[in-house]
């Protein structure tokens, strides 16, 4: 299992535990920790979404680079044919 898969699985476990936890007002440290955990989970979600968007952008750039390389090869072949 990849590190990313293990990480995603662990985050899911923490999210489930966080969702089922019911902090009590009489224990402010627990309540604050519970809130902080929620903030961290939200930040992780945001980073995962950002990483997915960046991966998509990278795939688009790679496709554009491949298309550009194909055009350059065609131009070089055309120039070679004219020079011959």
Mean pLDDT figure: 93
Question: Between the first and last Cα atoms, what is the distance in angstroms?
Answer: 56 Å
Helix content: over 70%
Topology pattern, helix = H, strand = E? HH
Q: Count of DSSP E strands? A: 0
| Total helical elements | 2
What is the CA-based Rg, rounded?
25 Å
Strand content: under 5%
Going by helix content, strand content and strand pairing, the class is mainly alpha
Could you say which overall geometry the principal axes of the C-alpha atoms support?
Answer: rod-shaped
Low-confidence segments: none
Major β-sheet annotation:
none
Describe the protein:
This protein has 84 residues and is mainly α. Helix content is 88%, strand content 0%. The chain contains 2 helices and no strands. It has helices spanning 3-20, 28-83. The longest helix is centred in the middle third of the chain and has 56 residues, at 28-83. The radius of gyration is 25 Å and the shape is rod-shaped.
Output the keywords:
single chain, 84 residues, mainly alpha, rod-shaped
Topology, pairings included?
Blueprint: H1 3-20, H2 28-83
Question: What's the short story on this structure?
Answer:
This protein has 84 residues and is an all-alpha fold. The protein has helices at residues 3-20, 28-83.
């Amino acid at each position: 299992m990849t590190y990313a898969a293990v990480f995603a699985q662990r985050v899911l476990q923490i999210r489930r535990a966080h969702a089922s936890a019911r902090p009590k007002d009489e224990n402010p440290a627990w309540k604050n920790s519970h809130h902080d955990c929620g903030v961290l989970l939200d930040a992780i979600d945001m980073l995962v979404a950002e990483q997915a968007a960046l991966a998509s952008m990278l795939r688009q750039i790679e496709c554009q680079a491949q298309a550009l390389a194909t055009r350059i090869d065609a131009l070089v072949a055309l120039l070679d044919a004219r020079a011959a």
